[in-house]
Amino acid sequence: MTPTLVRNQPGADASAPADAGTRARDWAEIQERMLAPLYEAVYDRMEVGAATRMLSLGCGSGLAMLVAAARGAHVTGVDSDRERLALARARLLPDAGWDDAPAHSPHPARRRARLLEDGGPAPVGADGAPYNLITVFEPIGCAAGDSEGLVPALRSAVPLAVRGAAVVLTGWGPPERCATAAVLQVAARLADTARPPRTEPGRWRPTLRDDLEDVAARTGLKPDGSGRVSCPFGYADVGSAVRGLLSTGLFDAAVRATDRSQVEKEVAEALHPYQREDGTVWMPNVFRYLVCVT
């Protein structure tokens, strides 16, 4: 991880988000690991292991899948972000496709992973075995409209699972329990500088108590338990923190309303209260998960 802020290239459009490849790498190398405690807590609760056939919706660059596969689970990931999916493929399937790795492979997790571009989750194995766990580790409840695409995706995925399969939804915890919420407010303030002012999907908003329950209700899922997990965001320095946070997409509306340089500058300033004497950045956060039954 590098401490250097991403710079605008000569001739680049400063009002546009960073290019997709750069942002995907920043997500995979800096930001994605912040949610590792959430993955582990969910897998512990769901007793993920060799009998698990998991579908990961919005699998990103594949860290959650890698953790599940290391526990013995068979995992299928679906994502619409081609750059993140390519990074997931490099992590999970660098040398072999689905079930193509030899039995003596030194990387057994690769024999239990499958990656698909958004548009059609498929049964896990050649025998058509259905899923018994569906996970959504892309947290909702922090941006306007961030659950709109999730509801139809879940409606399409649920028929591929066994009756009574678990579906785990995840989201941000209460703003007062998330130090990062104060930094994310910069995104909302800068987005409001657009003329004329506008509200658009992806704009930051405070998390609501029933965000996850609302998605479950609209999808026809029955809640069956929930939990909270501490997921502190820790960065080597302010520059890494800025890159990691901007890779989430939560600042895209702010970038369009102003420009990348302005957003980077104001995010860096908002991070100062969380910077330690050694230069590292530490922000305590709490995330929620909701366990549902199909």
Provide a concise account of the structure shown:
With 294 residues, the protein is an alpha/beta fold. The protein has helices spanning 20-31, 36-46, 63-70, 82-92, 150-157, 180-191, 211-219, 238-246, 252-257, 260-271, and strands spanning 53-57, 74-79, 113-117, 131-140, 161-172, 222-230, 233-235, 281-283, 286-293. The longest helix has 12 residues, at 20-31.
Q: Care to describe what's here?
A:
The protein is an alpha/beta fold and about 290 residues long. It is about 35% helix and about 20% strand. The chain has helices at about 20-30, 35-45, 65-70, 80-90, 150-155, 180-190, 210-220, 240-245, 250-255, 260-270; strands spanning about 55, 75-80, 115, 130-140, 160-170, 220-230, 235, 280-285, 285-294. Strands 3-2-1-4-5-9-6 form a 7-stranded mixed β-sheet, with helices on both faces. Strands 7-8 form a two-stranded antiparallel ribbon. The longest helix has 12 residues, at about 20-30. It is globular. The chain starts with 19 loop residues before the first helix and ends with a strand.
Query: Biggest sheet: strands, sense, closure?
Result: 7 strands, mixed
Helical percent range? 25-40%
Shape: globular
Sketch the topology as an H/E string, one letter per element: HHEHEHEEHEHHEEHHHEE
Low-pLDDT runs of 5+ residues are 1-16, 96-106
Strand order, largest beta sheet: 3-2-1-4-5-9-6
> Which structural class do the helices and strands define?
alpha/beta
Estimated share of beta-strand residues: 15-25%
By DSSP, the count of extended strands is: 9
Task: Please state the CA-atom Rg, rounded to the nearest Å.
Answer: 19 Å
Number of helices: 10
Question: What is the CA–CA distance across the termini?
Answer: 40 Å
